[in-house]
Specification:
The structure is a homodimer of 246-residue chains.
Chain A: H1 7-21, E1 29-30, H2 32-39, H3 43-55, E2 59-62, E3 66-69, H4 74-95, H5 101-116, H6 123-138, H7 144-161, H8 164-167, H9 171-187, H10 192-214, H11 221-224
Antiparallel strand pairs in A: 1-3, 2-3
Helix pairs in contact in A: 1-3, 2-3, 4-7, 4-10, 5-6, 5-9, 6-7, 9-10
The structure holds a DNA duplex (30 and 30 nucleotides).
Organism (chains A, B): Brachybacterium endophyticum
Keywords (chains A, B): DNA-binding, Transcription, Transcription regulation
Biased composition (Low complexity) (chains A, B): 224-235
DNA sequence: ATGTCGGGGATCGTATACGATCAACGGAGC
DNA sequence: GCTCCGTTGATCGTATACGATCCCCGACAT
């Protein structure tokens, strides 16, 4: 009795997927009428779908001009990673008390599969497992709103992250070790703040490596100043640093 | 020259506002046709507006049944506050290096107006100033995505927060002092993490007070376990063994 | 050569129309 | 008296139609 999806829903998920797969490239124009034809429906459902995608930030819309796939430039990528590091760190630390032994075992198994994948490296599969690993942990967070934000962060990232490990393959091995550490911290009931910072640093490590590899001249400070990520940032906080809490 | 807003936009902001003001109560049914009549337009623009509101979580939608104003229960309120505490804490700490002397002065002035408001207390005005104070700081955060999330958090909260200080008036005085401390930390270029925690605790203090006032027996752990919020929580974080959590 | 104006085509914005679906109600059968 | 089922009204979902707006491009004047 699975009710046929409404055309509006169809349009939504189709366009959504096509954006994720890259079939609709960033910046590409999304003409309502054309999409309607391709989907075999009129423009009305397509319009609704586009509206939702707009609200989710996947497409931009201009009055009387039309929609286009949102452009994700490097800046946006870095911001998304930084934001996700913050949100996910908090989510995992909140989730920690609710992570069962079974959950830990399951996550560990995923991590082992990643380890096995190191030889004969497959960036895409590796990335998929990576996402599974992380969702397994943050998913236990009792704050559903926070969870939702983690979800959105990953989705937002999916458009680029697909190839993250292609660009920075040397991160793979370190990543797995950091996963081990996170699991250990959770397992031994470490201080929430410690867990939070561990996850945060872990997530920030990849974009940092990415920046170092592409070009050092730029301005990697965007991430350098992430709170608590690197204790010794020495970022140009022109103000005298008074020592804070431990 | 201001181009007339599209009816879709009109519909969006009208419904949005009506939800915020409470004219449309939580759980209330939103009949497309009726709204269209009230706004003097057909249902199509209304549908689009509802879709966007749906994507933002302000309304829920059920196929072939219709839309209704999303219900915000106490749980959702607490989760939103907790989430905002995390996001805003990070945003302010990232913003700190970019907060100018003028910004600080401006924020201090807002805080002074709040102080003046303590006698002859006006919860609504107080709350407005409070939001202004906070946005002035987090607004300097260079991570626009994070900023956007702060914005959404406040908006989401606006539906309930309107009356927060009505419920917990004794928080007002403490709140102002905490503002002072935050300004001081930023002014002296304190460690980002210190700033982050200060903002986090500040935001969490109100819902905590709220919980204590309404009923202490309950289970205020939702917030007690916020990472780093209260160093001495000693939350009995016993891990659920094998068996699923919750 | 450059800048301005205007026509034409593509696309958007919205109203209207109509079939589809759901929920509520009331009567027939047990 | 209770359950089941068909009818009915309200509302949703979508197609179609048509006016409104914008962008592109070529002609004309400077």
């Amino acid at each position: 009795m699975s009710t046929v999806l409404s055309k509006s829903q169809q349009a939504y998920s189709t366009v959504h997927d096509r954006i994720l797969t890259g079939e609709y490239a960033p910046g590409e124009r999304l003409v309502l009428g054309r999409i309607g034809q391709e989907l075999g429906c009129s423009v009305v459902p397509v319009r609704e779908a586009i509206r939702r995608l707009e609200a989710e930030g996947m497409v931009t819309f201009e009055r009387n001009v039309g929609a286009r796939v949102a452009v994700i430039d490097e800046q946006a990528y870095l911001e998304t990673m930084e934001t996700l590091s913050i949100i996910e760190g908090a989510a995992v630390s909140l989730a920690a008390p609710f992570v069962s032994i079974a959950d830990l075992a399951s996550a560990r198994e995923v991590n082992d599969r990643m380890r096995a994948l190191l030889e004969d490296f497959d960036p895409v599969e590796f990335t998929n497992l990576n996402e599974r690993f992380h969702r397994a942990l943050s998913g236990r967070c009792p704050n559903s709103h926070l969870n939702d934000l983690v979800d959105r962060g990953w989705t937002r990232l999916d458009r680029l992250r697909r190839s993250t490990f292609t660009y920075v393959p040397e991160r793979a091995a370190a990543s797995i070790q950091e996963h081990d550490r996170i699991l250990q911290l959770i397992g031994e009931g470490a201080d929430p703040r410690t867990i939070e910072l561990a996850v945060r640093e872990h997530r920030l490590a990849t974009p940092k490596a990415y920046l170092h590899r592409t070009d050092d001249p730029g301005d990697p400070e965007v991430l350098a100043s992430a709170p608590g990520a690197s204790p010794a940032t020495s970022s140009r906080s022109h103000r005298p640093t008074t020592q804070g809490a431990s």
